[in-house]
Amino acid sequence: MYWLPGIECVVAIFTVWVMPKRLTRLEIYITWILMVALTFAADIVLALSFHLYDMATPKSDWQVTIIDVLFPPASGVVVLNFMPSRRSRFLIYMVLVTAISDCIELLNVHFKYVTYRHWNIWYSAVAYLIGILILRLHLYFIRTLRQSETEK
Fold first, then answer.
1. More confident residue, 32 or 61
2. Where are the beta strands (DSSP E) in 44-140?
3. Residue 138 in contact with residue 31, Cβ under 8 Å?
4. Residue from 63, 66, 55 nearest 108 by CA
5. What number is the average pLDDT over the span 41-48?
6. Nearest to residue 127, comparing CAs of 61, 8, 45, 65?
7. Which residues contact 47 (CB under 8 A, 6 or more apart)?
8. Tens of pLDDT along 70-105?
9. What are the distances in angstroms from CA 140 to CA 27, 86, 87, 90, 104?
């Protein structure tokens, strides 16, 4: 059950390690923390409170926590690192990343790591689109804040 998310974690972390960096170490660090917080918040509200889906088992396993701390943040860093700045390219990129994310999620559903209760892939597509927009705003905020700090 955990082999697929384990492979996903290894691939995502390896990608972060070897990719040409367009982000600073600080931006990667802050993005990692943001992604962990967003992942935990989403899982607590949607999975544990509203019971819309289960991760691995109805109870939370320590392996799920490890995967939540590794895969979504590493994926978010990769997505943000390669995010185009031009709006027209960004819209295409956003749709492409959402489609890839949905395919990865469907694989996790197929191999029983994720079980939908009152959830479906279209809800995930909307969540991924919102998440990508949040990442874009997040990077803009960090860079604007850093620039204003250096101008003082």
1. 32
2. 53-55, 114-116
3. yes
4. 55
5. 94
6. 45
7. 53, 54, 55
8. 999 999 999 999 999 999 999 999 999 999 999 999
9. 11, 13, 13, 14, 27
